[in-house]
């Protein structure tokens, strides 16, 4: 598995140096940018595989960078920011970020988040969505037949549960916000839809994770949304 090229967008020299040192020690390739304009130039010129993005840059807000970069690439974007409010996380994720890491952070967590998107890169979600089946651990989804299996046994899912499952599998490793999911499932984002989403997600999780000691497929990000985890 070849390590990806990482674009580090961070105006704080000490944090940027820490990330660079960490990536170098683990044999990752990287390039850096101290502000938004340099980040967009590096992203368009070098076509990196992953972006670490600070939101509080001197020349533009990180949300604007996400939106501009998303106009031409689907590369994973991991936000690294001192903004801790759920509203800020949701804005970044809704704009197209894949994950959110709050400062201060440990290098172990940084590397763990990178490994998650690295697995997603090698899984190649675009290819998975065009194929007729998806596999993750003991879970199999047959998109063409419109059914799902766990340990070889067909799961009896409601239409909403199946739509939720396919949305999660087609975005494996990515945090999907409540707003994103409800827009995709119900074409709206009313408070009642979020309440309904929690109910349907709970019933789906019971079917995917019948044993408490078994693998966890769905990760809840409280106040933000949900993520489908890669199960080895």
Summarize the structure.
The protein is of the alpha/beta class and 232 residues long. The chain folds into 2 domains: 5-123, Rossmann fold, CATH 3.40.50.2300; 126-228, Arc Repressor Mutant, subunit A (Orthogonal Bundle). It has 9 helices and 12 strands.
Radius of gyration (Å): 18 Å
Query: Averaging pLDDT over every residue, what do you get?
Result: 87
Annotated CATH topology of the largest domain: Rossmann fold
- What structural class do you assign from the helix and strand content? alpha/beta
Number of helices: 9
Tell me the span between the first and last alpha carbons.
15 Å
List the domain count as a whole number: 2
Strand order of the largest sheet: 2-1-3-4-5
What order do the helices and strands follow? EHEHEHEHEHHEEEEHEHHEE
Name given to the CATH homologous superfamily of the largest domain: Response regulator
- Gross CATH architecture of the largest domain: 3-Layer(aba) Sandwich
Total number of beta strands: 12
Biggest β-sheet description:
5 strands, parallel
Could you tell me the strand content as a percent range?
A: 15-25%
Q: Which bin fits the share of residues in helices?
A: 40-55%
């Amino acid at each position: 598995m070849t390590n990806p090229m990482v674009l580090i967008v961070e105006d704080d020299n000490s944090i940027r140096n820490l990330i660079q040192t960490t990536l170098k020690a683990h044999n990752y390739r990287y390039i850096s940018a101290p502000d938004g304009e340099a980040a967009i130039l590096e992203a368009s010129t070098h076509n990196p595989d992953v972006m670490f993005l600070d939101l509080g840059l001197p020349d533009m807000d990180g949300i604007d960078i996400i939106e501009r970069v998303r106009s031409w690439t689907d590369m994973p974007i991991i936000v690294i920011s001192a903004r801790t409010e759920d509203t800020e996380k949701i804005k970044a994720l809704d704009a197209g970020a894949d994950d959110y890491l709050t400062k201060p952070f440990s290098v172990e967590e940084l590397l763990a988040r990178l490994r998650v998107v690295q697995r997603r890169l090698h899984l190649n979600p675009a290819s998975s969505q065009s194929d007729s089946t998806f596999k993750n651990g003991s879970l199999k989804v047959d998109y063409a037949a419109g059914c799902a299996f766990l340990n070889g046994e067909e799961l009896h899912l409601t239409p909403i549960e199946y739509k939720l499952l396919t949305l999660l599998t087609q975005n494996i490793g990515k945090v999907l916000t409540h707003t994103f999911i409800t827009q995709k499932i119900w074409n709206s984002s009313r408070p009642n839809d979020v309440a309904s989403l929690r109910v349907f997600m709970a019933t789906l999780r019971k079917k995917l994770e019948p044993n408490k000691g078994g693998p966890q497929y769905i990760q809840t990000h409280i106040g933000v949304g949900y993520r489908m985890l890669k199960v080895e």
